[in-house]
Design brief:
TIM Barrel; Type Iii Antifreeze Protein Isoform Hplc 12; 12 strands; alpha/beta; 2 domains; two-stranded antiparallel sheet; about 15% strand; eight-stranded parallel beta sheet
Length: about 350
């Protein structure tokens, strides 16, 4: 089995030793307006996102136009819509893709997409997509994963709703489909609830995923706000994906669980700060601590002691600052005698005792 704990997308290394990679998910929040989609890309770049992700499908590549009960959504944000109606509303027209990829190059932000069938993969290959995302709902579509893996491009796989055996099968499929080289694979822990209650986030899954599959791991986050994504960094998330919108009040298929630009900027700042704070396992003195070292306790003369006088618990104490002997020496110095007159406030040293 070939494994990797670092992947590279568009020249950017991603893994535990690099700052978190933040993906702004455009989804259907363009509301059918190309100019809004382009503005969203600009806002994502200005907020600090590393990448903007699209979704490449049509209503006809995902489902059929049918109003039967099995094709009608019950509950949640999209209650009452047929699948076809939802995807017709939310899809990003393929004719927009060249302009979106071009805007990404202008902005210096990476653009890639989630294909939902082989025709989308072929289309994205022509656009030279630098990576591919496999959506949670497609995590059981092994033929699709085989096709994507055959491109040799990095793959980010969301695991929402997938059981452990299903994740194992998907990972094995991808790794076996990349001939002669390690698969550049990242797994995103994901709860496919829209929105996801914070108490269902189960972030402890992140280190388990990393340990089981020896891959880069991250979080595709549908919880409100930015706190869960920031916390995920402390548990090993190196990729963070969030849906974005210009304004939730404008509506849109995913607006209710999407971040506005100022919130995305906060997420980028906080997640990178959290990553910096991880540092390394260390017990060494840091530079910022050095100035505080002398504020620790040490042994001091707290009452004048004549030459030859005994050192006692009344005239020697452990106090701040730290210029004297270590406090652990107190039992061994009690009962010794002063080598000379020791005024109150003298830090105790070995040469001051006999």
């Amino acid at each position: 089995m070939t494994t990797t704990t670092t992947i590279t997308i568009d020249g950017r290394p991603i893994g535990p030793h690099h700052p978190p990679y933040v993906i702004a998910e455009l989804s259907g929040n363009h509301n059918g307006d190309l100019e809004r989609a382009l503005a969203l890309m600009t806002a994502a770049k200005e907020a600090g996102a590393d990448a903007v992700k699209l979704q490449t499908y049509t209503a006809d590549t995902l489902t059929i136009d049918h109003d039967g009960p099995e094709f009608t959504i019950q509950g949640g944000l999209w209650h009452g819509q047929t699948l076809y109606q939802l995807y017709q509303q939310a899809h990003t027209p393929w004719s927009w893709h060249p302009a979106l990829f071009a805007r990404g190059r202008e902005l210096g932000v990476t653009v890639f997409s989630t294909p939902f069938d082989a025709t989308a993969v072929e289309f994205l290959q022509r656009l030279e997509a630098p990576a591919y995302k496999i959506a949670s709902f497609e995590a059981i579509d092994l033929p699709l994963m085989e096709r994507v893996a055959a491109t040799g491009r990095p793959i980010i796989l969301s695991t929402g709703m997938a059981t452990l055996p299903e994740i194992e099968a998907a990972v094995q499929c991808i790794r076996q489909s990349v001939a002669g080289q390690p698969a550049q694979l990242a797994l995103l822990h994901c709860i496919s609830g829209y929105p996801t209650p914070v108490e269902e986030a189960n972030l402890r899954t992140l280190p388990d995923l990393a340990s089981r599959f020896q891959t880069v791991v991250g979080l595709s986050d549908h919880t409100p706000g930015t706190a869960v994504a920031t916390a995920a960094v402390a548990l090993g998330a190196t990729i963070l994906e969030k849906h974005v919108t210009l304004c939730r009040a404008d509506g849109g298929p995913d607006a209710a669980f999407s971040l506005e630009p100022h919130e995305l900027a906060q997420l980028c700042r906080d997640c990178r700060t959290a990553w910096q704070a991880l540092g390394q396992a260390s017990y060494a003195l840091t530079d910022s601590e050095k100035g505080s070292l002398l504020l620790r306790r040490s042994l001091y003369v707290v009452a004048d002691i004549a030459a030859g006088e005994l050192l006692t618990a009344d005239n020697i104490r452990s106090i701040r600052p730290g210029y004297g002997l270590e406090p652990r020496r107190l039992p061994s110095v009690i009962g010794r005698r002063a080598a000379r007159f020791l005024p109150r406030g003298t830090p105790l040293r070995d040469d001051l005792m006999v």
